[in-house]
Structures are given as structure tokens and as C-alpha cells.
Design a protein that fits this description.
The chain has helices spanning 27-51, 59-78. The protein is mostly helical and 86 residues long.
């Protein structure tokens, strides 16, 4: 009776598992995502080059802080309030 689907997660403080969703991705969608990532990367590199002369500190620190700030901003746009990816 322990492995019965109605008892899975009962008493453990966790909800029962939801049914898995099919992925259903296409090659065209993957290609568009790749192009979007490349485009955003090129725009980010151009923005960095535009403001690099105004940044202080050593070059390694400028790159580190720019990458961390970018990751924080983009990450906050991708993650929903409940902790799921958008």
C-alpha cells in the first residue's frame, strides 16, 4: 500500500507529483532561441564597449561586475515570483 499513487507524498510534507508535460519543442524554435541569444550577446558586447572607457578598476573586475549585473537583471526577468522559469 505504500507505493499506491494516492499515498505518494502523504505525510512527507510535499505535494504529490504533477503529470509530466510533453516537451514538444521544434528545431525552428531552437534555432530562433539560438539567434535571439546570439543577438542579445552581440548587443551586450556593443553596450560594454560603449561604456568601457567610463568604468574604473582593473579590466578583470570590470568584466566580472558587468557580467554579474547582466545576469542579475536578465535572471530577474526570466524567473517568476514562484521560482519557476518564465
Amino acid at each position: 500500500m505504500i507505493n499506491h499513487p494516492s499515498t505518494v507524498g502523504v505525510g512527507l510534507g510535499c505535494p504529490t507529483a504533477a503529470p509530466a508535460k510533453p516537451l514538444g519543442g521544434t528545431l525552428g524554435g531552437t534555432y530562433r532561441l539560438l539567434l535571439l541569444g546570439a543577438t542579445v550577446g552581440v548587443l551586450g558586447a556593443a553596450a560594454y564597449r560603449a561604456v568601457a572607457s567610463w568604468l574604473l578598476c582593473p579590466a578583470w573586475f570590470r568584466r566580472l561586475t558587468t557580467a554579474a549585473a547582466s545576469a542579475a537583471v536578465v535572471g530577474s526577468m526570466l524567473v517568476r515570483d514562484v521560482g519557476e522559469l518564465a
